[in-house]
Amino acid sequence: MQKIMLIGKPNVGKSSLFNRLAKERLAITSDISGTTRDTNRKIVDINGKKAILVDSGGLDDKDELFQNVKKNTLKEAKDADIIVYMVDCKLGANDDDRAYFYDLLKLKKPTALVINKVDSKKDEERSLEFTRFGFKNIFNISVSHATGIDELNDFLSSHLRDTFVPDNSELSLEDFLDENIAGEYDEEGINEVSEIDENHIKISILGRVNVGKSSLLNALVNDERCVVSSIAGTTIDPVNESIEYNGKTLEFVDTAGIRRRSKILGIEKYALNRTEKMLENSQIALLVLDAAEGFNELDERIAGLLGKNYLGVIIVLNKWDLCGKSDKEFDEVCKHLRLDRFKFLAYAPIISVSALSKKRIKNLLDLILKVHSNYIQKIQTSKLNQIIEEACLAHPLPHDKGKLVKIYYATQYSVAPPKIALVMNRPKALHFSYKRYLQNVLRKHYDLSGVPLIIAARKKGEKELIEE
Ligand code: GDP
Predict the structure, then answer these.
(1) Which residues line ligand 1 (CB under 6 A)?
(2) Architecture of domain 381-459
């Protein structure tokens, strides 16, 4: 597993960042076997990729042992895959930090300069001082205000290898490459690879207490005359409720949790674990927000669970009847949600509904069908390669240390959601911003509304696979 090392002077906020990155993982799963027990090392999950996070401890320049500590940390850093050097914005840039940072840069590892405690506009101005370091990967964050963490996570994950977790419904990339494209790839791509029941859609409804989840479930289920099944169980067993809609079965997952438990416990640790299970068993998630009351940090935390499970997502603004807002105002709310609150769910369509008056509940059902059909779509390999080739011609891949970076070909290796492999000569050199560019290009060619699009870079497996 790759190693991320946090380095910086005491009190700059290293352990807060450490806890924040580590806690996200811990909050989601109680199963932490395999996690080392040391307090300064944890397995973390960064945008769905696993890594070992190491807190190097303090680098106290007042300490007479400073030089030794520095040397040791430097030695340890040689072993790391990614280095995060942290400074305190409020203390300003100093020569010690700069000298040490330059020593670290000599290791030629992906490195981030993280400026913490950027809590205000004034701090932002102050942070400009650090541009003197002449370094481009600078991240302004505030651990306590939870800002800037997403950008840092994106940077980290762009340098982490994908940790593939194949399940029964999909082949791992390696298997797929071995079995399907030895020498040449199948023109029809993935078509025969994944067997999924296209007529059965599993949906989870999530959101904090009182946003109207159970009212929404009632509206979705009761509107339809034919409730197919309501599998009974105790309060502890998950209860799924299904309806037939336009020839498809829509199964709402773990509705017992929605109807009862969420009211009692809220999103506490137990509920989070349960939510995680629910998401694992779903393809589509409805993220319910209270449009009348507004959005808060808890909404964001709940939304954060979605990205990790690669689900199709629809953002449902409930209680629209209480808002009295016009279409134009709706657009503004959407903009706020996309730009400020849920940047990482930018692909999710937003719909305003009223569970109470049942306004636009039918539209929501139609939207579920649409997102699901996007979610399971199969992308023809030849067309995919043509699009990627054109995108690379329009914006050539940046060189890596003077060497040409090449994508030999692309192929979809999994559906639901679509996952695309780029088989390359230097997969590590694929920068996340380039990946994002390709994602945007593909989103222009295919309707992927509501659907995450995963792009994985891979080194060529077998020699004969590559036609240079
Ligand atoms: P849950 O905790 O997310 O399951 O929320 P509930 O479904 O229990 O709803 C919480 C409260 O909001 C209840 O008093 C509902 O009647 C009310 N509510 C839910 N949806 C709407 C809506 O669309 N409009 C209005 N005005 N009230 C709603």
Answers:
(1) 207, 209-215, 258, 262-263, 318-319, 321-322, 354-356
(2) 2-Layer Sandwich (3.30)
